[in-house]
Amino acid sequence: MVKELTLRIITPERVVLDTTAESVRVPATDGSMGIFPRHAGMVAALDAGELIYQEGGRERRLFVAGGFAEVRHDTIRVLTSAGEKPGEIDVERARAAEERARERLKPHRTGLTAEEATIDIARANAALRRAILRLKVHGYAN
Amino acid sequence: MASVKELRVRIKSVGNIKQITRAMEMVASTKLRRFQDRAVSSRPYAEEIAGLVENLAGVLGGEVENLPLFNDGAGSKIAVLLVSSDRGLCGAYNSNLFLELERWIKARKEEGLTEADVDFFVYGRKGFQYLSKRSLNVERFLVDPPLEAVSFAQAAATARDLVTAFLSGEYRRVELCFTAFESMVKYVPRVVSFLPIAPPASADAGAGAESDVILEPDAETIFDSLVPRYLETRIYNALLESLTSEYASRRVSMKAATDAATDMQKILKGQYNRLRQEGITKELLDIVGGVEALK
Hints:
The complex is a heterodimer.
Chain A: E1 5-10, E2 15-21, E3 23-28, E4 31-35, E5 42-55, E6 58-72, E7 75-80, E8 83-84, H1 91-105, H2 114-138
Parallel strand pairs in A: 1-7
Antiparallel strand pairs in A: 1-2, 3-4, 3-5, 5-6, 6-7, 6-8
Helix pairs in contact in A: 1-2
Chain B: H1 4-60, E1 77-83, H2 93-110, E2 118-123, H3 125-133, E3 137-142, H4 152-167, E4 171-183, E5 186-195, H5 205-210, E6 214-216, H6 219-294
Parallel strand pairs in B: 1-2, 1-4, 2-3
Antiparallel strand pairs in B: 4-5
């Protein structure tokens, strides 16, 4: 019998996904990380990115907005502030967010202290990354 | 004794009030269910996060106690996040909360603090009005977005604000004053400590059990990003529990009002019928008397 992983994607608002998978790839902060059955216990910090898992021989993806993955006894719990399946992604919102972030990254803005500007740019970059990733995952909807 | 006409008007207005309170009762039930569902579905996340904090604190051991969020702040003041309601007509929900708050203030005074040493962050118009009337310091009144439209993102922003305030060195501690939801008929106002974070009880026990876990990239990094999430879930949970309590309380008090209106209607109806009967009897007597006189 082929061993399977239990995959649970948990957000503050709801449990997005509770399924079994043959393998899972999570966007860890140090790069994408593959997890197969009988993986050692692990806690990993996650970046915003794509989570890819094999379910019934089919590859499925979803967007996670950073957080943590906990692997224990062939169960993966992903704790994230937002997890969205391709069909659930609000494309309009993601496009608008991308637009806003690009606007904020334009160099002409003034009236900010150096520190504020640094934080602002970091935030805009993060927002831009999330927007682009959302759109990318959405591209797999069909 | 009221006239027949006056009674008729009163019966009607009691009926109107009853309709309104019944409608409010139903609205409260629906909202109660919604907030309760949300509280339930937020639980897995909160539990997992709390579990991870405990495990990692075990792995990190004594280092945890040196982190700023685990120690009293540099200041002398105390910040309190007060979660009240925006609207009234919810029974003793707010007054119970304020009673608990007064008890807490009294206890602080015995520790040598004054009312000026406490700054409030407030959710809910009722709480803001109360603090203003008591002329206590309102540091911030959180109205946008309103409490009822609470989302995790908003709770997270409030948590960040509180952490920033705590780390600014102005405060020694941050407390939460909210209503804990225990059951449909039991909601208890409570003041609990938010910051500094109490070191997990199992700090020693957890070390042995979970030390063979791979940590990616390392314990410190994970812990640093985990702790804010933990604090966010605590605020979110406090807001949801308060909202659930508010609507449970509102539903009960609206049900009581509807029942009272029903009783009142019955009494008034009885009075009205008796009076009407009396009137008819009197008229009949007049007619009979008149006929007798004509004979």
